[in-house]
Amino acid sequence: MILDAAVRVFATKGYHTSRVGDIAEEAGIAHGLLYHYFGSKEEVLQTVFRENWSQLLEAFTRIETSDDPPLEQLGAIAKVLLRSWRDQPDLVRVMVREVARSPQLHGQVDEIRAVFVVIQRVIERGQADGSFRPEVDARLASWIFYGGLEELLTGWVLGQLPDGDQEVARAEQTVVDLLCGGLTRAGAVAPV
Amino acid sequence: MILDAAVRVFATKGYHTSRVGDIAEEAGIAHGLLYHYFGSKEEVLQTVFRENWSQLLEAFTRIETSDDPPLEQLGAIAKVLLRSWRDQPDLVRVMVREVARSPQLHGQVDEIRAVFVVIQRVIERGQADGSFRPEVDARLASWIFYGGLEELLTGWVLGQLPDGDQEVARAEQTVVDLLCGGLTRAGAVAPV
Amino acid sequence: MILDAAVRVFATKGYHTSRVGDIAEEAGIAHGLLYHYFGSKEEVLQTVFRENWSQLLEAFTRIETSDDPPLEQLGAIAKVLLRSWRDQPDLVRVMVREVARSPQLHGQVDEIRAVFVVIQRVIERGQADGSFRPEVDARLASWIFYGGLEELLTGWVLGQLPDGDQEVARAEQTVVDLLCGGLTRAGAVAPV
Amino acid sequence: MILDAAVRVFATKGYHTSRVGDIAEEAGIAHGLLYHYFGSKEEVLQTVFRENWSQLLEAFTRIETSDDPPLEQLGAIAKVLLRSWRDQPDLVRVMVREVARSPQLHGQVDEIRAVFVVIQRVIERGQADGSFRPEVDARLASWIFYGGLEELLTGWVLGQLPDGDQEVARAEQTVVDLLCGGLTRAGAVAPV
DNA sequence: GATGAATGAGATTTCATTCAT
DNA sequence: AATGAATGAAATCTCATTCAT
């Protein structure tokens, strides 16, 4: 499938360095055919983004609407995001490197924001039910939380952090432990 | 100066979309002259990176070698990174978007790592002196910490987070409060 | 019908700028089907040309072989050509713009010439029977005559000349008055 | 010079069939250089048109503002146009085949019209001074006149009419004799 | 007859880089 | 140091044509 091929190629060479012909070759088709399905190279990238980001959003939303307490919801969100590295590393590579901060992405800003808003709501709910400290700015916290997760993915993408099964599991634990419990002694938190 | 012009152009259009002629025009010189000072377009980007990243590293190192307690050192690191947005937004834009995850930067991996290592050592020192919880993986924590900071920068770069003076100050406070104190009630921490 | 669709499309966008898919879409068929009926895009154009040009030639020939005096025959020829604009403007557009001078039409030169030859013979007959001035080169005159008519069509095609019913009728009158008035010994000529 | 090369190439192969590389090769430059001077292939064609059409317009205007009687002015206009074939056949080929009736030419409509207006004014002046028949529509007549001339050029371009020096001179004479003979009161007209 | 996915030659255009001046 | 004309590799995209279904 063309999108899968595109993800593999973008992951390997980066969007700008990938040629349309590379994608076509990887997909086993003539490059012209790509233009039957996509109007341009950029549209391919945007489609990759849209399809997968909306999946992410759905997963997050499912978590948000579950009956779990907010603390566990944050843990579940972390798990979804970090597990995606094990499951679809190329996709993560592309989402992290090419899409998330590209200047070309102005059209998708709303979709990006939606993910942060979900996290923010979970935090706010935790503040409302008394399990989270109310004085923290929930919006900023949602960005910090997401950033921490994404940086772990980045570390794996760049080969700077070990990414065995154990390490990934440990990372999940660390993120929640850290962000929810804090570094300082006082704030220890039970494993999720 | 050529590098300043390059930063402005890269910040606006992204590295790949910027033409050498754009940089030259912004710098008020003929594009041929750029090749007297830099061997290639990529060398310009790398120079931007090197000069500024090493400045960042120096600042972090100064903080690390101060006599402040680890908790305050983390706060100082956050302040340096986040204040840079107010001082040199274009530069931050470039560092965040183009450099930090670009495949072009394989040569600079060591320099990038150095920054994380500083953070990691601060955390480890805090664990050693008893102010930080020892069970947290310091390496992962350093990435998460940096990621949280970078995502705030990203939010400002993308125009998704308000970036007035007050908000930037508030963000500094939130990062440290959150990462050090945790979200949950038990772990409150005094303002730095 | 495919040819009609082709004429409409060629008239609107010009031959070279028209895609086979445009013609097919206009005809309401899949583009592949077009190749059951025509060997190539160019063959479509040539067929348009051949079918209509031969009709024109027939009409001219009918006029030539009528019993009318040469002067009236020229008027009838002008009327046929100019009226075609009212009846089939798209077709005229194509014939005028694409066909008459296209390098693609080298095979059809003979057919094109035939039309001029008819006009030339009418003129020669008029010179023979004394109604036209004998010193005029009949061959050149036939081209000038045809050119005058075609330029009126061009004016209409380009939207530079008013093309209401009255104006078209007036144009017929003017052409004959002008061109034949110059041919006839005395100058002025009665309306045809 | 690039424009000259373009004219030669367009004249030989037609605009759409000519590749940018053909023009560059004919001009003895790399094709990229063409884009220093022209934004696109179409701009090359438009420049060819504009530069030469405005020259034509100047020539016509000079004739119009001379002291010669209208009849002689028409003769001079015919001479300029027809002589251009001898002087710059490739240019005429391009102007006649590619430019004058191209759908791409919507921007230049005003410039085209200006030429016709000059002719029209000459005719009107002839009607005013009594040398031309007043009942003829001067505007239509200008189009017919120009069309007759252009068709002669077309005949030469297509190789359908003999174009030796003598024949060109003869054609000039015939056009005026024919078209002006019809305009003048009495019919016959002295050679110009 | 009819479809439209698939092909791939080939066209335009871009732009980093060179180098004579 | 400084210019910008010149180069040409390379990239994207188009579209006539084919052909399995």
Notes on the protein architecture:
- 4 copies of one chain form a homotetramer.
- With 192 residues, the first copy, chain A, is mainly α.
- Helices cover 71% and strands 0% of the residues of chain A.
- Chain A has 9 helices and no strands.
- Chain A has helices at residues 2-13, 20-27, 31-37, 41-64, 70-87, 89-99, 109-128, 138-157, 165-181.
- In chain A, helix 1 packs across helix 2 (20-27), helix 5 (70-87) packs parallel to helix 8 and helix 5 packs antiparallel against helix 9.
- The first copy, chain A, is elongated and about 60 Å long.
- Mean pLDDT of chain A is 87; it is low at 187-192.
- Chains C and D meet through helix 7, helix 8 and helix 9 of C and helix 7, helix 8 and helix 9 of D.
- The structure holds a DNA duplex (21 and 21 nucleotides).
Topology:
Four copies of one chain form a homotetramer.
Chain A (H helix, E strand, L loop, with lengths): L1 H12 L6 H8 L3 H7 L3 H24 L5 H18 L1 H11 L9 H20 L9 H20 L7 H17 L11
Helix pairs in contact in A: 1-2, 1-4, 1-6, 2-3, 4-5, 4-7, 5-6, 5-7, 5-8, 5-9, 6-8, 7-8
Chain A binds a DNA duplex (21 and 21 nucleotides) through helix 3.
